Amino acid sequence: MPLRVWEAPWPVRPRRTLAVFRRGPHDPAYRVTPDGTVWRASHTPEGPGTLAVAASGGHVEAEAWGPGADWLLESLPALLGAEDDPDALVPIDDVVRDAARRFPFRIAKSGLVFEALVPAVLEQKVPGAEAWRAWGYLLRRFGEPAPGAPQLRVPPPPEVWARIPSWEWHRAGAEAVRARTIIGASRARLDADPSRLPKLPGVGPWTTAEVRQRALGDPDAVSVGDYNLPGIVGWAFLRRKVDDAGMLELLEPYRGQRYRVSVLLQLAGYAPPRRGHRLSVRDYRRF
């Protein structure tokens, strides 16, 4: 069981930094124990692995299991935001300045492009609960038990996703369009060449941004096409909802840091009042 102790020059907050990787409250690849330790199962270039991360101030202790253990520990600083530069954000208004003061955070970088792509595709244009249900089913059905933490499941490698039969996608509640996108992407060797990502059929600006945020730690990858984000940004700056074009206009002064700003506004709790019906959770398993 490899162990790494790392002294970061800033207070590390694993629960806040790594929460972006959690896909719903019952994600089979992610959990937080009562003592605050974050556990995460991944399929690395070296194989499956499990990482457990705990921190106190800048003192970080991490343990890892499985063939991918060394890779996970080597990638630990980047995962916790060591390659991010929060000081690159220069607030020009009180809204962002106050959020940055109250909610300091660093952007994680997993380095695993395909692993970030699959749940992003499952989340395309559907309520989160619907996507999380599909993610959970597929990991429990096709992911292997996580090394050192058999209650977790390791997301399958691309070659396994490519072989999932149509009826299993149906049972997961993922319709054929999203299934075809994931199967096609499984053959694209995205981890070796992330530039292929926006060229893939079924992968648009929203999906590309969601992947770049998590896998590459891109501070400017704003999620254009998100159902809630324009309302959050509009409410923070104007106290009214805006569309994608309006959101981009409001974020333009922060070009280069637009994803960071959008996260800060969400952490600060900006959101328009809820009115009308929420998106209903569909169930393709009944079709």
Automatic annotation (TrEMBL):
Protein name as it appears in the record: 3-methyladenine DNA glycosylase/8-oxoguanine DNA glycosylase
InterPro entries reported for this sequence: Alkylbase_DNA_Glycosylase/TA (IPR051912), DNA_glycosylase (IPR011257)
Keyword terms, alphabetized: DNA damage, DNA repair
Molecular function in Gene Ontology: alkylated DNA binding; DNA-3-methyladenine glycosylase activity; DNA-7-methylguanine glycosylase activity
Native species: Actinocorallia herbida
One Gene Ontology term, aspect cellular component: cytoplasm
Transmembrane segments: none
Top-level taxon of origin: Bacteria
GO biological process: base-excision repair, AP site formation; DNA alkylation repair
Keyword DNA damage included in the entry's annotation: yes
